UniProtKB/TrEMBL annotation:
Signal peptide: none annotated. This is Aldo/keto reductase. The keyword Oxidoreductase applies. The lineage of its organism: Bacteria, Bacillati, Actinomycetota, Actinomycetes, Micromonosporales. Pfam families: Aldo_ket_red.
Amino acid sequence: MRNAHLGPLEVSRIGLGAMGMSHGYTGAGTDDAESIRTIHRALDLGVNLIDTAEIYGPYTNEDLVGRALKGRRDRVVLSTKFGLVAHDGRGPWTVDSSPANIRLAVEGSLRRLGTDHIDLYYQHRVDRQTPIEDTMGALAELVQQGKIGHVGLSEAWTDTIRRAHAVHPVTALQSEYSLWTRDQEEILPLLRELGIGLVAYSPLGHGFLTGTLRTAADIERLDDSDFRKNNPRFTGENLARNLAIADEVQAVADQVGATPAQVALAWLLTRGGDVVPIPGTKRVHRVEENTAADAVELTADQISVLDRLAPAEGGHHTDAQMQMIER
Ligand SMILES: NC(=O)c1ccc[n+]([C@@H]2O[C@H](COP(=O)([O-])OP(=O)(O)OC[C@H]3O[C@@H](n4cnc5c(N)ncnc54)[C@H](OP(=O)(O)O)[C@@H]3O)[C@@H](O)[C@H]2O)c1
């Protein structure tokens, strides 16, 4: 596995998102033992960037990752996120990046992850009630105390990124970026100016780009808690319209002799050595498939076909979720 750079932090150029092991895409097929084997297999294949968050579960995903990393902590660049749980009694799904909340959140994450430091600690969503300068000041203190190594932001836009970076270096922005969610291309020049890496979440389009979810019946079969049941791109007429995108990815995959998931990841890898996809899976065979995208080379013609895919129909999140995303 080749490496990439998120600012000064060297990581494998493909990471592993652990969210779906406990949150978002659970339901049939969820099995903690297989999830832990998946994390171990990823490490053996050279993946070192593992991504979780306090809100996943909440808490259970950090617990699971902590169990998986027992005895393996030093092989991992461990990233987690705060800011969607308010520890003053308001609880999960409350945006709170106040310094007091961060100081409580970090202790819980360290305990669940079974470690004395987090390598990359992200604000999960920008908090409009707390100036980003205050948030970054609290995070800079955690860096000084050795509790965290680097600071990241997620789904933040230009003004917040500049203001945050002026207080303490931002190492990575984690935002949705894939063949069907391209708006990060607007922000990449700023990230490069400031030396900030881009961690591409949902790089497989929540699984859609792999061609495994194609019909209303496929979506109906998902667990009721599955995010995709309400996602605008997976519902109503948008689902059928978006199939053309999955079909084009499949056509390129057929030419390359790879799978659609590998093509979606290989395309992201062509964006630069500072763009790091973190595909999510809870299955050993899929982490093997996804990691092998490191060796998939696309021709200029194939890249150009993928660059020109029709835009997706429907927002990449629900309207309520979009309210929490800065643009
Ligand atoms: N910062 C944020 O706000 C934010 C938001 C969302 C996600 N994330 C992070 O980004 C990570 C990845 O994003 P994501 O999990 O939302 O989406 P994703 O990586 O685009 O897709 C994950 C889905 O695709 C399936 N899948 C994975 N590999 C596959 C393959 N080779 N063939 C067919 N299906 C495959 C997975 O199912 P199985 O598990 O059953 O294989 C899962 O349902 C998350 O784990 C999380 O760490 C961050």
